[in-house]
Design brief:
With 268 residues, the protein is of the alpha/beta class. It has helices at 16-31, 57-60, 63-68, 106-123, 189-194, 201-213, 218-221, 228-242, 254-266; strands spanning 5-14, 38-44, 48-51, 72-75, 83-85, 88-96, 130-131, 158-160, 163-172, 176-184, 246-249. Helix 1 packs across helix 9 and helix 4 (106-123) packs across helix 8 (228-242).
Length: 268
């Protein structure tokens, strides 16, 4: 039986608005049945704050601080909360619903992708990365919902030694889904913390402690810092081994390019 063909895109570092527009364009094309399952690997060419699809920008984001620090703000097409993309490796995975490589439900699809991320991290040299489950939820959170993505660790995300290393979020349409994932290479919790609003000074101080003590970076867990291309190769290998498909590097289609231009205009 012939294996299905999946597309691989390695984009390197790019503009935040463009990154989000590309991922959304691939999802839209997949929803229309006009794009193959696609793994896209990329980075960010400048510090950028992304906020979740339904997150309240006025409530959670300190726009004045973002302006003063020259931090651009983009809205993700996936859910979740605010995340400062700075020293980071990002992947996006888009596939149709249903798809033979996935169970076809939120939890099952999340778990399948997380298994590929774990294998990719192991290939990079990370020892014992674990998928967070109901029994392994990272402690130390208040009752109020934090505006920061890395302040909590949700099901199917990746931790090492009880600390969050990789965050993720998923958006599902009727016939396709998109999963974003962020792996911290390094961190600047004070900068990330300064861009967000909190309901009290005590909560603000507590969340800074959480961001500092409950997250890990790849540079902290590996003896040698990896170049972006080296980590991209680990992810390519990890996803190749996890999903038994044929992988083919390929550019965006003409439809996807048109959609990218459309979404960039909408985000201005």
């Amino acid at each position: 039986m012939k294996k299905p063909v999946w597309r691989l895109i390695k984009d390197g570092s790019g503009d935040g608005r463009l990154n989000m527009a590309i991922d959304r364009a691939i999802l839209t094309a997949s929803e229309r049945g006009q794009a193959p399952a696609t793994l896209r690997l990329y980075g960010w060419d400048r510090p950028t704050l992304s906020i979740g699809y339904s997150q309240n920008k006025l409530k959670d984001i300190d726009n004045r601080q973002c302006e003063l620090r020259n931090i651009s703000i983009v809205r993700r097409f996936t859910g979740g909360r605010a995340l400062l993309h700075q020293h980071e490796f990002t992947y996006s995975l888009v596939a149709s619903i249903p798809h033979p490589g996935f169970p076809g439900n939120l939890g099952g699809d999340f778990c399948a992708v997380s298994k590929a991320v774990i294998l990719s991290l192991e290939k990079a040299g990370v020892i014992k990365p674990e998928m967070v489950g109901k029994e392994k939820r990272i402690p130390g959170r208040g009752q109020k919902r934090s505006p920061a993505c890395f302040s909590t660790s949700n099901h199917w995300e990746i931790s090492v030694k009880g600390k969050k290393l990789a965050g993720s979020a998923q958006r599902r349409l009727s016939r396709a889904f998109l999963q974003h994932g962020s792996i911290l290479l390094d961190k600047d919790p004070e900068l990330a913390h300064s861009l967000l609003r909190y309901f009290s000074d005590s909560a603000k101080e507590q969340e800074l402690r959480n961001l500092t003590s409950n997250t890990l970076t790849l540079n902290e867990v590996l003896p040698v810092n990896l170049e972006w291309g080296e980590l991209a190769q680990c992810f390519e290998d990890g996803f190749r081994e996890t999903f038994s498909v044929s992988w083919k590097p390929g550019p965006l289609s003409s439809l996807e390019m048109e959609l990218v231009e459309k979404y960039l205009q909408e985000s201005e």
